[in-house]
Specification:
Blueprint (H helix, E strand, L loop, with lengths): L6 E9 L3 E9 L5 E9 L2 E6 L5 E9 L4 E5 L2 E3 L7 H13 L1 E13 L8 E12 L13 E6 H9 L6 H16 L16 H7 L10
Parallel strand pairs: 4-9
Antiparallel strand pairs: 1-2, 2-3, 4-7, 5-6, 5-10, 8-9
Helix pairs in contact: 2-3
């Protein structure tokens, strides 16, 4: 078994609306203790919703940190009360794209930036689509528009640098690869070992236990 990287101490330095920043004192190989900053996150879901013509529902949304609108797959945070990932995906698809789906599969799981955050995302493939009444939207989402893009065109846009959102890039390329290879996708009850729990437990006042290391 390799080194365990035991946490010798921890402290919270920022507690915001959707993230918390903590600093852990971690024992390195050889015995040195080093500080590691960790951004805790609720986790998120995204949806590649594909219609019978092979088109993908995408949203164009303003992203303030980079100051422009991006073409993205519908996505959103898990509710801090412990919302199930599939329920969150169904909610986000309805809220952002006014869609529901009869068929759901896990397309890909992502650890979005594991060098400094526990943020992870589960990305679903949704098919058998049908339209819902338009949802009420506020803030950035009030400016959001839905665009339908053929999957092959979306791949081209990824490679041309026109779609840059990391989740969307991963979902589009995964869907294209799975389709060409005929790869069977996982069911919606597939284990998600990297689902974040630290921030949710913190907000619910529950003790957080580190995952077992194998």
């Amino acid at each position: 078994m390799g080194h365990e990287f035991d946490v010798k101490g921890t402290r919270t330095v920022y507690d915001g609306a959707i993230i918390t920043l903590r600093v852990d004192d971690v024992e390195m190989p050889g015995g040195r203790v080093a500080e590691r900053e960790v951004v805790e996150h609720f986790g998120a879901v995204a949806i590649l919703a594909r219609d019978d013509a092979g088109r993908v529902a995408m949203v164009r949304q303003y992203r303030h940190p980079i100051g422009r609108r991006l073409l993205e797959l519908p996505a959103g945070l898990l509710d801090q009360g412990g919302e199930a990932p599939l329920a969150a995906a169904q909610r986000e698809l309805a809220e952002e794209a006014d869609l529901a789906a009869d068929s759901w599969h896990v397309l890909v799981d992502l650890a979005l930036s594991p060098g400094f955050t526990d943020e992870a995302l589960r990305l679903y493939l949704a098919e058998g689509l049908h339209h819902l009444d338009e949802a009420e939207r506020v803030d950035e989402e009030a400016d959001m528009s839905v665009e339908w893009v053929a999957l092959d065109d979306a791949v081209t846009m990824v490679l041309a640098g026109e779609i840059v959102n990391a989740t969307s890039v991963a979902g589009i390329l995964a869907a294209a690869a799975a389709g060409r290879a005929g790869t069977a996708l996982r069911g919606v009850d597939a284990p998600w070992p990297d689902e974040p729990t630290a921030l949710r437990d913190r907000r619910l006042g529950e003790p957080h236990h580190e995952r077992d290391r194998g």
